Amino acid sequence: MVPSPNSLNKPLFPECINWVLDHQNPDGSWGILHDHQLVMKATLLSTLACVLTLKRWNIGHDHMSKALSFIKSNIASATDENQRSPVGFDIIFPGMIEYAKDLNLNLPLASMNVDALVQKKELELRSCCSNSEGGKAYLAYVSEGIGKLQDWDMVMQYQRKNGSLFSSPSTTAVAFMHRNDDGCFNYLRSILQKFHSSVPAIYPLDIYARLHMVDSLQKLGIDRHFKDEIRSVLDETYRCWMQGEENIFLDASTCAMAFRMLRVEGYDVSSDQLTQFSEDLFPNCLGGHLKDFGASLELFKASQIIIYPDEFILENINSWTSRFLNHGLSGGSVHSDRTERLVKQEAVNAFEFPYNSTLERLSNKRALESYSGDIVRISKTTYACLNFGHQDFLELAVEDFNTLQCIHRKELKELEKWVIENKLDKLKFARQKLAYCYFSAAATLTSPELCDARLSWAKNGVLTTVVDDFFDVGGSEEELVNLIQLVEKWDASGEAGYCSKEVEIIFLALHSTICEIGEKALPWQGRSVTRNVIDIWLALLESMRKEAEWLKNKVVPSLDEYMENGYVSFALGPIVLPTLYFVGPKLPEEIIGNCEYQKLFKLMSTSGRLLNDTRTFDRESSEGKLNALSLYLISAGGKLSKEEATEAMKGDVDRTRRELLRLVLQENSTIPRACKDLFWKMSCVVHLFYRKDDGFTSHELMNSAKALFELPMVLDELLNKRNTKEIS
């Protein structure tokens, strides 16, 4: 539409006119061909824009004739409230109709339709409070529909360093027509130098598009195949972050996604950069004025990555986005550049499985089942980017999922055989929780080559359950002492003597399993770790014996004394710590036992102990047992109710978990990241298991485990499911 400065009757960018002539759709429209009528408003907008362009330069009469016929046949969609509306449609489309009159273009529209559209424009302009910063940004963004009445001084306040307005070529072009600004011209010219005759709806989009692609690869569980490429994307994003790149910080979705992904990968990024998206300030930006559901969802996900006690901005964002998203889920339609059904389902998943309760394998399964592959977005009009989704991603993810599932089945059969060989199924007092234990391993240790790690995790998980039940209900005081003495002497010959068949079964299972772990760890570590694993088990047994003595002698320890023992007796040590030897890095003896190692273990176990004790309070109280919650109530001297004490302990869990995440993510560390990740993965397992009940009694969790092991993904079914879902 921009005229040449040398002649108002000639276009400044004639190559764009040629593109319009060459890219009309067979039905007479322009725009992305989409198989759903609910994006018809965007198609009408694109088509009318092209008609006005051809009329402006008096060419393409046959094209115009076909396009006007298309508009006439589909104009009813323009006032259909059930249609998805591009941003600013109620201002821009009527504005184009008014401009058509100036060009003496006779549109095949009934006066009733025109009057309705103009009335909607007037209502939209009145409802958009130009005194608010968000309202001003919106009016500037939709300048194409306001034309001569626009306050161009106000509009130019939104010009970016690259010369654009909102990274929108159309807004920038109309501003250039009215202000002849060099920055606008240079931006428009740079686009054509890059894309030749075609112009994207948004430019630049590369940072957001690449981050979205990385996010998709991670959700689908195939990111390990693209480690170098992902690192390159994140390194470049971090460089842009540190340089204050506008394309990150002026867009809520991009900024939130960049913050979350960079922080999780260990880059040093400050949450202060998100201050502009606080509850008070977010309405001042374009996305805030539009009440962008997708941007709010990205901010919500970013707000969960709190690692410092004073990150109040993240708490603020978490609070308001939670309310906003819940309101959208319980109400009607929401504004988003993606299909409403998809973005709402993503929000449901974000609430149901927050970052601190996410198990990779379950997340991968959900992503596969909901993967739309829809590369189309809607802003002022529809646009597409292959980075948003591709069937190749889905095909690779399905193949990868099924390959790993076969490995899981094989490992589970091996574990079932191990249980029988060690006679653990003969222990009538013990809960049989092999499936749960292996599920927690398989759902978090997802790389195929981590077989030894998964088996170590699962076997020790089974053994800790057996020993816990033995100390709780299955064993006498003599048997408990006997078991500890046997582990201390570490003699499987039987000369030390077993006081019962149960003690013999448990000790021999411990002995054979720990020795096996030591043998398997030797090539990984280049040294013997058997003694370390024995010591880990001894620490657990001693902590359990102390709790048994407290119960027998009716001792009421202080809360601090209980927790100092309780984080060990929660029994995560034998599961997590030996597994560290099987995830890749070598761990020298001096690392085992250093303060960082011990702190990671204590933080992980403390949050688990507190979660467990709040969930099992009623049952344990009825059995006459003390736990952290009952001791918290005792220490309060009757000043707190159970509900108040539970809420206070929840705060302790949050603080402990955040400190754990900070240690895991920090770069300057003596412990390799692959090892630190295990502590966080187990924390996620515990948070998921105790999300609604005491973990081991969850039927929902058991069903998830069965589906993970037994139900393969079928590509054709996923594609058919995707293709038959309606766009809402």
TrEMBL record:
Q: Which Pfam families match?
A: Terpene_synth, Terpene_synth_C
The family database entries (Gene3D superfamilies) matched by this protein are listed as: 1.50.10.160, Farnesyl Diphosphate Synthase (1.10.600.10), Terpene synthase, N-terminal domain (1.50.10.130)
Keywords (A to Z) from UniProt: Lyase, Magnesium, Metal-binding
A Gene Ontology biological process in which this protein takes part is: gibberellin biosynthetic process
Kindly indicate whether the keyword RNA-binding belongs to this entry.
no
Among CDD domains, the record links this protein to:
Terpene_cyclase_plant_C1
Highest taxon of the lineage: Eukaryota
Instruction: Pinpoint the Terpene synthase N-terminal domain residues.
Output: 151-341
| Gene Ontology CC: one annotated term | chloroplast
Q: Which cofactor does it need?
A: Mg(2+)
User: Molecular function terms in GO for this entry?
Assistant: magnesium ion binding; terpene synthase activity
Chain ranges of the Terpene synthase metal-binding domain: 423-658
Q: Does the keyword Magnesium apply?
A: yes
Name used for this protein in its record: Ent-kaur-16-ene synthase, chloroplastic isoform X3
- Which gene name does the record give? LOC103489622
